[in-house]
Design a protein that fits this description.
This protein has 6 helices and 14 strands. By secondary structure, the chain is α+β, with helices and mostly antiparallel strands. The protein has one domain: 4-Layer Sandwich (Deoxyribonuclease I, Chain A), CATH 3.60.10. The chain is globular, with a radius of gyration of 17 Å. The model has no long low-confidence stretch (mean pLDDT 97). InterPro entries: AP_endonuc_1 (IPR004808), Endo/exonu/phosph_ase_sf (IPR036691), Endo/exonuclease/phosphatase (IPR005135), ExoIII-like (IPR037493). Belongs to the DNA repair enzymes AP/ExoA family. The active site is at residues 106, 147, 248. The record marks 218 as: Important for catalytic activity.
Amino acid sequence: MRIASFNINGIKARLPRLLEWLEETRPAVACLQEIKTQDEGFPAEEFAKIGYQAIWHGQKGFNGVAILADGVAPVEMQRGLPGDELDEQARYLEADVSGVRICNLYLPNGNPQPGPKFDYKLAWMDRLRRRCALHLAAEIPTVVLGDFNVIPEDRDVWSVSAMASDALMQPASRDAYARLLADGWTDAIATLNPRGGVWTFWDYQAGAWQRDHGFRIDHLLLSPDCADRMVAAGVDKAHRGREKASDHAPVWVELRI
């Protein structure tokens, strides 16, 4: 069972590339971030044509997440991350698909830091940890995946000095991510690539893609049950180099059924 995550950076602008990727790789579950559309603008019918059913949580102009499932309907379990009634940003969507709890997230960027945006990021990470703890306590097979906007370690970035002041790799961001892992989650890509050097994002600026100046911010976290069933994980890097591509590449994990 292949479960994938793809920050599509605007679903309308990238729809041909997205459909292309779905048909070429055929994940059982595909989680999307930054769909950047209101609910009524989500192109569900285009996915239905190729056999995918979808649920989505949209927002005008930015943010937005969706879960697609091949041949089955995702059963929605949670829309929006609990813990802050004033938070209206569309960054979290949770569903059950074929016996696995899928938690799809687009974690706040946090720049500029310090400041209110960084404070929001850390508070959001704390709320995420509390939500994830419920799944662990209930022993639900769970995959928490998406754009975390956290570079976990120095081995996950092409240049530590170039990103030193960015919210993505501040000690507080990294500590929050490490605490989440310490609760019992397995970082699939890191586990299978202990030396690092695996990127999931390349900026559109300064020839970052051409120079392979990237970093890893798209993650797949597995509950103990799912970690025991992991057979492979990777990044569909070639899709970043296609015409009108997202600045992220899809990431995926395969689990034994």
